[in-house]
Amino acid sequence: MHLKEHISYCPKCGAKTFSFDKKRFVCSSCQFDLYINASAAVAALILNDNGELLLARRKFDPMKGTLDLPGGFVDVHETAENAIKREIKEELNLTITSLEYFCSFPNTYTFRENDYYTLDLTFICKVESLDDLNVNDDVSAVEFIEVKKIDTTEIGLSSIKTIVSTFQKSYKN
Ligand SMILES: [Zn+2]
Known about the structure:
CATH topology of the largest domain: Nucleoside Triphosphate Pyrophosphohydrolase
Protein name: NUDIX domain-containing protein
Number of domains: 2
InterPro entries: NUDIX_hydrolase-like_dom_sf, NUDIX_hydrolase_CS, NUDIX_hydrolase_dom
Pfam families: NUDIX
CATH superfamily of the largest domain: Nucleoside Triphosphate Pyrophosphohydrolase
GO molecular function: hydrolase activity
Shape: elongated
Number of strands: 10
Radius of gyration: 19 Å
Strand content: 35-45%
CATH class of the largest domain: Alpha Beta
Distance between the termini: 42 Å
Bound molecules: zinc ion
Domain Nudix hydrolase: 37-170
């Protein structure tokens, strides 16, 4: 559900004249405005030596149980590079040694009846050693799947589905 379904009172003057217009809320009483932007998120493409891609099984909603790429939201004042290193350490206990920007896709992420707009930035990552792999946080398990054999219909989030399809097309083994 979009925020406009929840918010109708102006947070500054309190009048019920706060409405959404394309990219922002605006109050017709006091002119206070509030922009709604996409949140930056990061996702990692990590391959093993056999050319298989690491996919995570989502532990929580939204899309619990579906396949996903590991990653998460970028914190305020954090770089995308640091965010992907932090998330991969937290979720998989892996240490990223190098990364290369791949692509980005927008998404709508619905959590507790609220739609969050994201821009998912994807990086092809190399890690120190896959022997360190230890699943925790919001991942329930990981699977390595040969790139061309990944069934993208098993991927829940639409942006991640598009990212993996794009990677499949560009991948040469
Ligand atoms: Zn107002």
